[in-house]
Amino acid sequence: MYRYIPNLITVSRLVLTALFFIVINLQTSATNFPLLMWLALGVFVLAIFSDALDGWLARHWKAETAFGRIVDPFADKILICGAFVFFSCGKIIPGEVTLPVNMSGDAATGIVPWMAVVLTAREFLITGIRGYAESRGIDFRAQWAGKIKMMAQCSAIIGVLVCLALGTVLKSSMVLNGLLIARNVAIWITVVVTVLSAIQYIIRGRQLIHEQ
Questions:
Q1: Which residues fall within 8 angstroms of residue 110, CB to CB, at 6 or more apart?
Q2: Angle, CA 130 vertex, CA 76 and CA 4 arms, to 5°
Q3: How far apart are CA 29 and CA 212, in angstroms?
Q4: Domain contains 81
Q5: Do the domain assignments include residue 98?
Q6: Over the chain (212 residues), what is each successive 10-residue block's mean pLDDT?
Q7: Which residue range forms the structural domain that includes residue 176?
Q8: CATH code for the domain of 110
């Protein structure tokens, strides 16, 4: 029975992902906006924790299944790419909310549409390569570049949520400016690492095709 626990945790992450999108898309008052962002942050961290937990349990109990191999990365992609898409459109910030001048326009989240496109394109590409490899019985699990990419993406999303939560409270301050710089650095690291990991997977996929 315990062997089904990793899959149940994976399914719960899909539920948390849906809840995360609902929370960040709620149109609320300026007073409640910071609270919603903190709530979204809590849901996101819980979802990321569940990602690490289900993988560890599946390996520890030797309970890896086809369901987990398909749904687990799917849930990750929906959570991360969906967050970047939502943040890039800017509509998550209600009209009543007033942010500091250094968080106006695209600077509100620091994420612009082309960044979301890059992340989503990378995931489509890797999914295609992985599907081709595994259809031929070749193990094509994530390597170090993919794991670093995931860490960078999570750091960027956490940075965006923290800055949005504090933006209406701290206004223009040295603390907020420092957080915005850290957030922007995390976002750009995410973009660079995403591109580099895509290149690594392309090279690896090309080698596999030639070997076949």
A1: 159, 160, 163, 180, 183, 184, 187
A2: 50
A3: 58
A4: yes
A5: no
A6: 80 94 86 92 95 81 76 90 91 81 86 94 85 71 74 95 90 85 95 90 77 66
A7: 2-93+104-211
A8: 1.20.120
